[in-house]
Design goal:
There is one protein chain. With about 450 residues, the protein is an alpha/beta fold. It has three domains: about 190 residues, MOFRL domain (glycerate kinase, domain 1, 3-Layer(aba) Sandwich); about 170 residues, Rossmann fold, CATH 3.40.50.10180; about 70 residues, no CATH class. The protein is about 40% helix and about 20% strand. The chain has 17 helices and 15 strands. Strand 10, helix 13 and strand 11 form a beta-alpha-beta unit. The chain is globular, with a radius of gyration of 22 Å.
């Protein structure tokens, strides 16, 4: 699955191999199938999770949304078996796996498509079947916001697509993007809770910085603290208010006047939201594995945010300080971070994603620091609209780029990190990982001679 041989074809091979091994450990720790199995168990018709037990007197239904939903659903089917009355999961194209009885719809991500709307209609039909004594198990993971959609009012798919595209390219954070999404949707911002009469148990794989439940897949089973005013301000602040379609402006304007229903503001006590896998868990596992192998290790942050190429320069400066002066940490050392950086697109652009751009930008700072490498990946295996998960660069990468005729500054300016890294065998290709806990950044500063 991992293109390890290609990545280890040049440069600081020992440190790069170590980072790839640590990555696989981290991904294993947030495998959604295993996470569900760890958290959920069955005792006849009772469902046990964490330190609670739900005694189910009615039927059990399953609704999944997100890139990890099929793996989660497979585990639920194995645990609950014939107790499941009906179920539906919606996942990204290419991310489905065979299930026994739960239906699967593949849909578009990061931009919703017709199948996203189809899934929304089928999800609402499923919710109508759930009565007071029934249990709805909701399986939530990253990507669910685009994959499952039921627009508010008369908002069309084309209008949703245009709005999503403008938001993604604006440089807005995922938290800001989701605030707007929640206020033009019937599903997001607690919409599932509003339209379901039964008990709800949500098992959540978090892909959001800080693990705020209301932000994960735009919080379909969570209370929401944002408002139409916030959605309006975000569109204004990023210069998008006059660019989004008229139907979006009309609906948000109705909300500002109190003529459209707000998102869910208070969570009923019949709803349980449980985070079963997160970026923090992945980072902690990588940290523990590095220690087990005899290295110093530090988690710098699990909330890394900012423009990818600029954040990379800041991290690169820390790497230089450690390499040259052994401060704030002595080398050899492994540094770990998690979070989600962004890329702001202006005009025509090439191919890439935030993690590829992070890696390419970092190559400028670590050139010549032998025994140093930086790995940046999106844990779902897809960084931006590409087939790459991210990039892996070392102290030789910049020189290889220059020898290949790549102008790194121009590639960053054009957001064409994919083609630059591809030229030097530095794209990380994992294929679908069936999980999604945001981005991981693993840095090795060993100071080895190669």
């Amino acid at each position: 699955m991992l293109n390890k041989e290609q990545l280890l074809s040049y440069g600081d091979i020992e440190v790069k191999e170590l980072l790839l091994d640590l990555l696989l450990k981290g991904l294993e720790a947030v495998d959604p199938y295993k996470a569900v199995k760890r958290v959920i168990s069955r005792d006849n018709k009772s469902i046990k999770f964490v330190d609670k037990t739900l005694h189910v007197h009615g039927k059990i239904y399953v609704l999944g949304l997100g890139k990890a939903s099929c793996s989660m659903a497979k585990a639920i089917e194995e645990i609950l078996g014939d107790l499941i009355e009906d179920g539906l999961v919606v996942t990204k194209y290419g991310y489905s796996i065979p299930l026994e009885n739960i239906r699967i719809i593949e849909a578009g991500h990061p931009i919703p498509d017709n199948n996203s709307l189809k899934a929304g209609v089928e999800a609402f039909e499923l919710l109508k079947k759930v009565y007071e004594n029934d249990l709805l198990i909701v399986l939530i993971s990253g990507g669910g916001s685009a994959l499952l959609e039921y627009p508010a009012d008369n908002i069309s798919l084309d209008d949703l697509i245009k709005t999503n595209d403008l938001l993604i390219k604006s440089g807005a954070s995922i938290h800001e993007i989701n605030i707007v999404r929640k206020h033009i949707s019937r599903i997001k911002g607690g919409g599932i809770v509003k339209h379901c009469k039964g008990i709800i148990l949500s098992l959540i794989v978090s892909d959001v910085v800080g693990d705020r439940v209301e932000d994960i897949a735009s919080g379909p089973t969570s209370a929401d603290t944002s408002s139409f005013i916030d959605a309006y301000r975000i569109l204004k602040n990023y210069g998008l208010w006059n660019k989004v379609p008229m139907s979006i402006r009309k609906y948000i304007s109705k909300g500002l006047k109190g003529e459209a229903e707000e998102t869910l503001k208070e969570l009923p006590n019949r709803v349980y939201n449980v985070i079963i896998a997160s970026n923090e868990i992945a980072c902690k596992t990588i940290y523990e594995e590095a220690l087990r192998r005899g290295y110093r290790a530090y988690i710098l942050t699990t909330t890394l945010e900012g423009e990818a190429k600029d954040t990379a320069l800041a991290i690169g400066s820390i790497i230089q300080e450690i390499y040259r002066f052994n401060r704030p940490f002595n080398k050899p050392v492994i540094l770990i971070a998690g979070g989600e950086t962004t890329v702001t697109i202006h005009g025509e652009h090439g191919m890439g994603g935030p993690n590829q751009e992070f890696a390419l930008s970092t190559s400028r700072k670590i050139a010549g620091l032998h025994g140093t490498a930086v790995l940046a990946i999106d844990t779902d295996g897809t960084d931006g609209p590409t087939d790459a998960a991210g990039g892996l660069v070392d102290s030789y990468s910049l020189n290889k780029l220059l020898n290949a005729g790549i102008d790194v500054e121009e590639a960053l300016h054009r957001h064409d990190a994919y083609n630059a890294l591809k030229k030097i065998n530095s794209l990380v290709i994992t294929g679908p990982t069936m999980t999604n806990v945001n981005s991981l950044y693993i840095i090795g500063i060993l100071g080895l001679s190669t």
